[in-house]
């Protein structure tokens, strides 16, 4: 049975509760910083201000990204990978930071949505892609090549992923499709590994991690989305009143004790 922890609050604070090198894989879908009075969108055929929520209004997006990326790298295991979703609005910042932090950039995955909505304005191309940076601390990282090949019909998987946009299961405006997270988690982790999502949103990563027998830790700053994620993942416990560090260390100590017991019993035979 997977261990699932979901906590309410700012990831920059909650990440500090985690011990170093305790996470096998990270998927992060951070704010793209699209909202605010200077950003426009089209709703019901009319031009309107883009307002996804206060969580998407960042004064200094580069400084914001640097804080949470640094903490994520601290908690990531040496053979783990981090996957960061974005668009042209925040992705250049992420790319610069990955190089600045001396990470090994593995791939830039292009998620192509063939069924992306058309663009009403006629002064630019219709957006139909999102980008996902994939990076690690060194060249020695876990990557299930055979699983990726199997998911791609027996052929080597390329970095262009054609996955249609899906109807949202919740009211979250930037909800990712489960099929996208299934591919990422299957390629980048093993059963029993721990997956972290510092911007959990409506809980897609947690749902998929649980289904694929991975442990999951998620943080969400918006109270409404936090409650949605709790219900969607099927959580009955509130983990906000105790330290994740204590829970993770207790689990590691128990696992070590069981391994030592098993080794001792084998020697006695």
Name the features.
eight-stranded mixed beta sheet, 8 helices, Rossmann fold, 269 residues, 34% helix, alpha/beta, single chain
Description:
A hairpin with a 2-residue loop joins strand 3 and strand 4. Helix 2 packs across helix 3. This protein has eight helices and ten strands. It has an eight-stranded mixed beta sheet, with helices on both faces. Strands 3-4 form a two-stranded antiparallel ribbon. The protein has one domain: 3-Layer(aba) Sandwich (Rossmann fold), CATH 3.40.50. It has 269 residues and is α/β, with parallel strands linked by helices. 34% of the residues lie in helices and 24% in strands. The longest helix is centred in the C-terminal third of the chain and has 25 residues.
Give a quick precis of the structure.
With 269 residues, the protein is α/β, with parallel strands linked by helices. The protein has 8 helices and 10 strands.
**What is the global morphology?**
globular
Low-confidence stretches: none
Tally of DSSP helical segments: 8
CATH superfamily: Vaccinia Virus protein VP39
- Overall structural domain count: 1
What's the CATH class, please?
A: Alpha Beta
Biggest pleated-sheet summary: 8 strands, mixed
